[in-house]
User: Fold these one by one.
Assistant:
Number 1:
Amino acid sequence: MSTATIRAGAILPGRGGMGGALSDAFWRNPKLLLFVMLTPPLLWLGIIYLGSLFALLIQSFFSIDEFSGLVVREFTLKTYGELLRPSNLDIIVRTVTMAGLVTIASAIIAFPIAYYAARYAKGRWKAVFYLGVMLPLWSSYLVKVYAWKLILAKEGILTWIFDKLHLTFLIEGWLSLPVVGGNSLSVSLTGTFLVFVYVWLPFMILPVQAALERVPGNLLEASADLGASPRQTFTNVLLPLALPGIIAGSIFTFSLTLGDYIIPQIIGTSHRFIGMAVYAHQGTAGNIPLAAAFTVVPVVIMGIYLWLAKRAGAFNAL
Amino acid sequence: MPYAVSFQQVSRHFGTVRAVDAVDLEVEAGEFFAMLGPSGSGKTTCLRLIAGFEQPTAGHIEIFGETAEGVPPYRRNVNTVFQDYALFPHLNVADNVAYGQMIRGVAKAERLRDAEAALEMVKLPGYGARKPGQLSGGQRQRVALARALVNKPKVLLLDEPLGALDLKLREQMQEELKALQRALGITFVFVTHDQGEALSMADRIAVFNEGRIMQTGTPEEIYRRPKTRFVADFVGSSNVLSPDLTRQLGGPAEWSSLRPEDIRLGAGGGHEAQVTGTSFLGSATRVTLELAGEKLTVLLPAGSDVPAPGATVRFSWEPSALHLMGTEA
């Protein structure tokens, strides 16, 4: 035993100084520490973020004077009526359908990858998995989108591969279809869809992988033990337990697609998406109320989506 | 009548590790069979081979006379009670118990009725609406048991099912399991590392060590006439005496075992040894003796005179208590 410990009493003296007094005060009153740490972010979130959302909501109830182009600061539902005009409704339907399809495709592609990573990948392979999923997120979003424009272009590598395989008729056949077709993949809704799926896929894989990681392996064994084939185990055990992760991932893929205005502008048709409409209305058109009303649409859709998911029992396993 | 389970030279290797190594095993139909051994001795792997979660590297497995290797778990009429119960957290208790029948397509009303009956059998009537997370460890254990038994399996496998329960609950469950097994007549194969549990519950025991079966027999045989030093030491912590010491104590130059409770102290005659320690166990007192450099454990019944550490005592035993195990090391 060192002499220092022998000399020490049962209670050590205070550390002294501001730091010491502060540590003691925080220790005696843990709520004070919580208050000090949480107040700045809560103020930020409450005033800057929620405040502007609220301002947005109010804006959407204003309208624009068609003659002068000025915002009339009187509460009216006129702007929402405008939102329901066929041309605007068309934008909403197109965006929501795209977001839904992107989400479903992402979930289908993500599940096997996430399952492999959660159940089989060990050590170095796990690191390879995380790197593989995250690496695309490290490079600029714009770079990736323009890279895809080249890949999907008529002179791009995809057409070249199909040509070498003598399968060009497949691409041409697909492009001749209405709605999803176009002059080339890079100017079709199919191209928009492919790039959306590529860009948002990591946001689906990671939560699904986290959910699957929490499913104990012996539950799958128990299911097989009770007579369930792998397929029955998937529907009755694996899928319900992975559902919170799939929902979490779909919130990302769905809302990111709902709000994006860059991808459909670079890759796709001249038909607009909600994000592009918001961008156009608040910018050149100067129709802030309509832009605000467009912005409220994804918020409402996400609210309905989460409510339905909860009712369907998606969060029961949490 | 074929054996409920039979292993012929079954091995299961994981890389270079021989988890199960050329095991021969026969479990009779309707018996309560325990697989006893320390962790890593291969007993759980054997259980998983019967359930179908593992496939043998070599050898042949039969369940009621039918070849089992290559058959997936979901095609075996065998059910398992898992060590940590493995109840489905997203289903309530009734749906957990009814899972097997739901998979087989039994109508909802019928399977829920069967589930309630099974819950009654394990003394949890009316618990069907709860979620597994709302149950205590002992209750979860009973649900896991009901979930397996409701399918009326040919063999019920239990993987250390009582390991997570406290002592009192464990003793109660031991008796209930035994009674349940008698009433249902289903073959139970039970894995445990607790020799007391195996001795009190099983009709027959296989003692495992390092992937092999050391000895198979009734609890009485295993306890009274261990074949090897490992069995003597592991089952009931017997005193294992070297050939040298056995000879000094008047026997032949062979390994031998002497049960702690078979040794008497202070009764004149016999041999002399030094007391190195005592510990009070409640129903008995354990006294450690040292003799010719070897340790000897004595279990004194409650109420006996307990010698002080450091004292020299005389000890003796009935000649029949010294069990000889041959000269092999």
Number 2:
Amino acid sequence: MDNAIVTVKNLTHRFRLSKKAVIKAVDDVSFTIQKGEIFGLVGESGSGKSTVARCIMNIYQPTAGEILFHDVNTCDKTAFRQNRKLLQTARQLIFQDSASSLNQRMKVADIIAEPMKINHITPPRGSYREEAAFQLRYVGMDENYLDKYPSEMSGGQRQRVAIARALSMEPELLVADEPIASLDVSIQAQIVNLFKHLQKEHGFSILFIAHDLAMVEYLCDRIGVMYRGKLVELAETAELFAHPLHPYTQMLLSAIPYPDPIRERNRPRMNTEDMIFDTEGTFREIRPNHFVLTKEAAL
Amino acid sequence: MENLLEIKNLSVSIGTGSGKVEAVRDVSLTLHPGEVLAIVGESGCGKSMLCKSILKLLPRNAVIESGSILANGVDITKYRERDMAKLRGKLFSMVFQDPMTALDPTMTVGSQIAEAVITHNPKLPKAKVYERVIELMELVGIQQPEQRYKLYPYNFSGGMRQRSVMAIALAANPQILLADEPTTALDVTIQAQILDLLKDIQKKLNTATILVSHDLGVVARAADRVAIMYAGRIVEIGTAEEIYYDPRHPYTWGLMRSLPALAKGKRELYTIPGMPPSLIDPPKGDAFACRNEYALAIDYEQAPPMFRITDTHYAATWLLDPRAPKIERPVGGSVHG
Amino acid sequence: MTIKRNRAAYYGKKLLIFLVSVILLSMTVFVISRLTPTDPLQAYYGERTEKMSVEEKEWARNKLGLNDPIPTQYIRWAQNALKGEFGISYKYKQDVVQVIAKRMNNTLILGGIGFVLTFAGSLLLGILCAWFEDSWLDKLLCKLGTIVSCIPEFWFSLVLILIFCVQLKWLPSSGAYSVGKADDLMDRIIHLILPMIVVIIEHLWYYAYMIRNKILEEVRADYVLLCKSKGLSKRQIMFRHCLRNILPTYISLMAISVPHIIGGTYIVETVFSYPGIGTLSYESARYADYNMLMILCMMTGITVIFFNIIGQIINERIDPRVKANEVVETSEVSEG
């Protein structure tokens, strides 16, 4: 546990709509992301997984709890100010919808070079353009795209540009918020391969947020399952898929579609729309490195 | 009357600033009563356009270039908007991808369903309309319909909204239901339930369904037959068993192999190299040739015809020509389980 | 309870903005009017000023309080205004309120009817163009509308006067009624025709075009596809769904347009010598009738600011994000 790059401790984030209505988007969530690890966070829409990512990226200020990046408490304003440069370059974010997160009026070359310019980093490969070209090649696109606008590219290509932009800062942590959700299956596979590839070469950590368990299983080393703002289960990928303990995880896993008509047709059906799972209890280690939110001491 | 819907050599193009996009190219298709036909392909392959051209819900800049659409043996290709309005809802209706925007935000869900009921049955007394709406809401699995009747779309979850859209689509007992990526915008757990619902409805009401999706994994649960579309054409069509256990087109292989569920234990996910071609000026020959590791010389020259494999299974690839070299298929045959 | 307090704070803030704007406006108008080179005595004594000696003029100025420093004058004016006394008109030698009251009806008739007709007309035109989108009718109306709305109001008025009053002699060129026929309804209507036409035509297209585009935006919305696929006719979709959805925009457009149309009405009044607030404002500025100018500017300004704030409030109320928040609120409550 000494190798943690991000430590989330008892993170709680409430959205205050008015003085009366408060939504607990994230409720008492704790986990760590190790150096060089791909950590997956899954859950349905509204489960709070994106809010966790945004708290880690300092987009939201958490209501309670703390988040350590290395040893820096990023929620603390003085600590944040003192380490601003480190925090702004070493952590990079990739959004789901690159069509709207990339500036439509900027060319690819400028999009990739922008964070370097903002942070006054001298491009290691001569000019900003050279650097942009390098990063672009790195994510599997050629230089012809340097002068294109985001609207001239496909969703997969835009996502690659967003990744190239993040990589230009040589981050230690990449937070990817549903980066493949709006892509076609075959393009999803390309981007996931790219993530895996880049991680191996750079050795950075990835917080990968998704609702598609099948892709997460393939990509991630450890997986956290979120449900209604709570982290309900946390385990290594193989362990989680082999022994899902929380009923919600079990249901999520059984919902993964499998491209086999006979198997699919025989799969028992479920009705979850009005199903509510228990989010009471404490987070316990039931099996080695396998944590579950549960009331009973043993399952 | 064997075929509920028959599409013959349909071509649809969209006029854009940079040229004419040939969105659907020479597609022929039949739909039998009471079956679920899945159309699978990547975004931009024309699957959505194909659907919308059947209902004539095409955007203003799109036109049917050639071909015909026969519904119950009647050619509706030349039907005007007024005639189409009479068929929509009754003969066929549609469910859309994004249930968040498909409902009118200013009207209660109940009255939107009621509107669909009244349109095709204007003389129905009010009490009967209400009864029918409640019945429809129960049919699509909306619990406590009486209370939810008066709610607005924004009070509903994504899955509930998609159920409401289906209730609207089913209001006049259509013979054909077209579902354009009905589960894409929904959570994984809700996806399966919407598919189950589609299947239930098809069983209960004997509605034939065209289910459009980009994910072969998702449609396996519901589809009786599957058509694979690529670059505006249907490249392979067959029963679900034939497509999943005995695929013949290299593109179908590619789609299957890139599914993570089949990549268990592999170090790298399979990806189809390259990107779909632009349909503004589609390539000569087979549009898939340049991404196809099994491409033959003739693929670059001449588009392959549909080769018959069985009476229900056809694929458009020169690999099925008797003169083609025999290759070892990367998928198929062994997936049974 | 808390929500109520929030709402009170919200409206309180708006009210504060309103008051500050009004005070700033009064100061600005007051100072600017004193800086103009016209002589207020001209308004008070008319031709006689030319015969007055310097001492007489000085005495008159003192009597009217025009020699005090501007801040003193302003404070005196403000104190009186708070008591409801706006002074007398130099030109009419009457309480300004009385003078204005006589003219108010005329402007309300012209502006009010113009406003209603403009909005009814622009909705109809907007629907018509959206219905026949891209047809020759739509294209023609769009082009014609653009041209017409580029014609300056005063010039357009003069052309109409030339054609209908000078050449054809069908309609009167000025006034609100013929001499001695103040109670004759027909006579008033005849006098209203030309000014009304200018007010409507000048504003009609601007709003019709906005409504057309808003409807077209709605027509392309996803829910229209669903409506079509359930078999609704184009007419049903347009009137039951699309119009309903543009209603909030339409209302806020109406609120924001009030100042716009008031401005137009004033110009038209001046050209047609129509005895309304517009002509009065013009006169008062021309003759440096300070008290009159102040109250007219304040009245117009307050109306403008008021409707701008109303427009703002409507816009903020229909903001989808506001709605979305309310949704979560209700769902939370139902769950709890």
